[in-house]
Design a protein that fits this description.
One of its GO terms (cellular component) is cytoplasm. Its cofactor is pyridoxal 5'-phosphate. This is Cystathionine gamma-lyase. The chain has about 450 residues and is an alpha/beta fold. It is about 35% helix and about 15% strand. Strands 3-9-8-7-6-4-5 form a 7-stranded mixed β-sheet, sandwiched between helices. β6, α8 and β7 form a beta-alpha-beta unit. α1 runs antiparallel to α12 and α12 packs across α15. The protein is globular. The structure holds pyridoxal-5'-phosphate (PLP). Pyridoxal-5'-phosphate binds next to α5.
Length: about 450
């Protein structure tokens, strides 16, 4: 990739680090000429002037038709079809995730339903890991049966379990790594190996695609496409957005699917607001490395603190040496320079004589924190400037009935901490006080 300065000097971007690239993005993009702005200008126009009927007609026939018309400067028509702020965000996220293209959506769920929507049709089947984000579970279990799309959850901690659910109708393997909320780590390369074996027996139309939700790690900690994923999805609302001000979602993957994703977005309508695209491009992406670096340092300290605390049953944090997936995490979760980057989320369970008592103790802790802690806010979401604490079983994963929590890998008393940018000792002080009430 190269960029052209005003005096026609070509700058080779590939000579610079990814962290620097996230600040500059593409200085001059095919999508929009704004050479004299230091930050990208914000665009807010639902419709675009078309000059002539002929140019309007050309715009419509070129839209989502890159196979025939190629890339290059788009003819903008209407925000729901395409618009410069979103296009620039997509270019930059595709670059950092090592994908050929990206298409943005109004939310993470907009992105997830779009990629699953284009890869499946009635009669198809989707295999997922047992543990998934609550609304993804709800999409697969409450809505997909209406379309006759079957959902088959398995324990992908052993990727060979794919074979136990595999049928000729299986079209997608979908998982999160680390998984929400328990932070289980799935071996991406191993899943790739298995899917390659299966695909070698199939014709191109019926091949299985691997889709990975990389929201928990962010591209700073993990680039699944490099490890074998076909597609990556993100909730931009979380670590990439970074400040908790805007919702968004994105799908990254192979170029040949870009048109379909854009058509899906046009017709199902989950369009990212350009003002949110601009915020994520201007604030979220450039600060991703420094935010993540700080959050990882803090998360490691908090995880160590909880790990030895007498009232804590266990802690799942990919950076803890006694975490069951530590070795795999070390292999998969690395920053742009190759350092181990275990992320900003922690899952832990407080002790109790029974699951019910452990749950009640967890609720006590969280209720105390909600009222007394300065640095921990009881709230869902993650990747925020502020540390957020929540109870998955009654909040983000409340779609799971209590008797199915264990099947979904969720402890009744499990607590999720999404580390923010505060001083680590301040958060630990608040946690220590909150643990005292148990
Ligand atoms: C939040 C979240 C989503 C959904 O994203 P929204 O932007 O809230 O729609 C999907 N996957 C994971 C892992 C999440 O944490």
């Amino acid at each position: 990739m190269s960029k052209e300065k005003k005096n026609n000097q070509i700058i080779d971007e590939s000579k610079y680090s990814m962290g620097t690239h996230l600040i500059y993005g593409k200085y001059k993009t095919d999508k929009w000429d704004y050479a004299h702005h230091v930050t990208a200008p914000i665009s807010s126009s639902t419709t675009f002037r078309l000059d002539s009927v002929e140019r309007g007609a050309q715009g419509f026939s070129q839209f989502a038709n890159t196979k025939i018309f190629g890339e290059g400067q788009p003819i903008f028509i209407y925000d729901r079809l395409g618009e410069p702020n979103k296009d620039m965000l997509e270019e930059n996220i595709a670059y950092v995730e090592k994908g050929e293209m990206a298409v943005s959506f109004a939310s993470g769920m907009g992105a997830i339903s779009a990629i699953l929507g284009i890869l499946t049709k009635s009669g198809d089947e989707i295999i997922t890991h047992n543990t998934l984000y609550g609304c993804t579970l709800s999409l697969l279990s409450n809505w997909y049966p209406r379309y006759n799309i079957k959902w088959n959850p398995v324990d992908l901690n052993n990727p060979d379990n794919i074979y136990s659910m595999l049928t000729e109708n299986t079209k997608v393997i979908y998982f999160e790594t680390p998984a929400n909320p328990n932070l289980e780590i799935i071996d991406i390369a191993k899943v790739r190996e298995i899917v390659d074996k299966i695909n070698s027996q199939r014709n191109p139309e019926s091949r299985i695609n691997i889709v990975i939700d990389n929201t928990f790690a962010t591209p700073y900690c993990q680039r699944p496409i490099e490890l074998g994923a076909d597609f990556v999805v993100h909730s931009l609302t979380k670590g990439i957005g970074g400040f908790g001000t805007d919702m968004g979602g994105i799908v990254i993957g192979r170029k040949e699917y870009q048109d379909m994703l854009q058509l899906y977005r046009k017709d199902f309508g989950a369009v990212l607001n350009p003002k949110s695209a601009w915020s994520i491009l201007t604030y979220g992406l450039p600060t991703l490395p420094i935010r993540m670096k700080k959050q990882i340092e803090t998360a490691a300290k908090i995880a160590e603190f909880l790990n030895t605390h007498p009232k804590v049953e266990f802690v799942n944090y990919p950076g803890l040496k006694n975490f069951k997936h530590y070795e795999l995490a070390k292999k998969q979760m690395v920053d742009f320079e190759g350092n181990f980057a275990p992320g900003s989320l922690i899952y832990f369970v407080v002790k109790g004589a029974s699951p019910l008592e452990s749950k009640n103790n967890g609720i006590k802790l969280m209720d105390y924190a909600a009222e007394h802690a300065y640095t921990m806010t009881l709230a869902v979401s993650l990747g925020h400037t502020r540390t957020l604490i929540e109870h998955p079983a009654s909040m983000t994963h409340s779609v799971v009935p209590p008797e199915q929590l264990a099947d979904r890998g969720i402890d009744a008393g499990g607590i999720r901490i999404a580390v923010g940018l505060e001083n680590a000792d301040d958060i630990i002080q608040d946690l220590e006080n909150s643990l005292k009430v148990i």
